[in-house]
Amino acid sequence: MDFLLLLKAAIMGIVEGITEFLPISSTGHLILASELMNFWTKEKSDVFVIAIQMGAIAAVIYEYWTRLWGAATGMFTGEETGRRLGFGLILASLPIILIGLTFGQTVKAMLFNDIAVAIGLIIGGLIIIWIEKHPPQVRAQEVEDLTYKDAIWIGLIQVLSLIPGTSRSGATIIGAMFLGVSRKAATEFSFFLGIPVIIGAGLLDLYQSYDVFQTTQDWTVLSVGIIVSFISALILIRALVAYVAKRDFMIFAWYRIVSGLLILLFAYTGWTLW
């Protein structure tokens, strides 16, 4: 067993858990971390980057089980708030599922690189700054207050997250805020919306690339990444909800812009830190 590889998998899991629900692009950070550590072969690393996101989303299910169960059962019992949230999540998930199934592999082949990540980071950072300086009037304080129309629009905005560096969390949170959803509700809806999308993408990628992982060590490395991402994501979720209750996202906007510019600088000059 290659213990250095397991250590790298654990570090990748920490990166995923910390970045998945922040508006800074988990996929972009995982791609960069993989290149920095020379983690695995590119073929295995690309599958790993997608698959370990299931660990982070499992943390959402664990943390919000009661509300999610209420949404699932509400669709059948007719309980109003549960029914609205349940069907809203389905409607919001359809665009990225349909477009992801059609173009996901093409996007992965063309845009899983540092230049695409850098551009996505910078553009997303500028959008966050704009929305924070021009905040719309809040009309939906809680997740259950979102209308079906809100859900559809957020789902369409989420499609942008297929581009590495854009950030699924960033797109859905900022998109929801633009529609008049409170910062807390936008953040929680982003958590919930990741469940079908991330689990679906992870399982599909594993199915399509099943022959990539051929040994016990391969599956052990993947398992370590998933478990570590679950633990670190659970800690992050609780911290982020407390953070957004009192602060804005400007720090993440500037982080995105500075990170993107540094990536472009190193890419175009050939400089390296490793």
TrEMBL record:
Function of the protein: Catalyzes the dephosphorylation of undecaprenyl diphosphate (UPP). Confers resistance to bacitracin.
Similarity comment: Belongs to the UppP family.
InterPro entries: UppP
A single MF term (Gene Ontology): undecaprenyl-diphosphatase activity
Transmembrane segments: 47-65, 85-104, 111-131, 151-177, 189-207, 219-241, 253-271
Recorded topology in the membrane: Multi-pass membrane protein
Subcellular location: Cell membrane
Top-level taxonomic group: Bacteria
Miscellaneous comment: Bacitracin is thought to be involved in the inhibition of peptidoglycan synthesis by sequestering undecaprenyl diphosphate, thereby reducing the pool of lipid carrier available.
Keyword flag Cell membrane: yes
GO biological process, one term: regulation of cell shape
Top-level enzyme category: hydrolase
Keyword Magnesium: no
Protein name (Swiss-Prot/TrEMBL): Undecaprenyl-diphosphatase
Main localization, broad class: membrane
Keywords, alphabetical: Antibiotic resistance, Cell inner membrane, Cell membrane, Cell shape, Cell wall biogenesis/degradation, Hydrolase, Membrane, Peptidoglycan synthesis, Transmembrane, Transmembrane helix
GO cellular component: plasma membrane
Enzyme Commission number(s) of this protein: 3.6.1.27
Native source organism of the sequence: Acinetobacter indicus CIP 110367
Reactions it catalyzes: di-trans,octa-cis-undecaprenyl diphosphate + H2O = di-trans,octa-cis-undecaprenyl phosphate + phosphate + H(+)
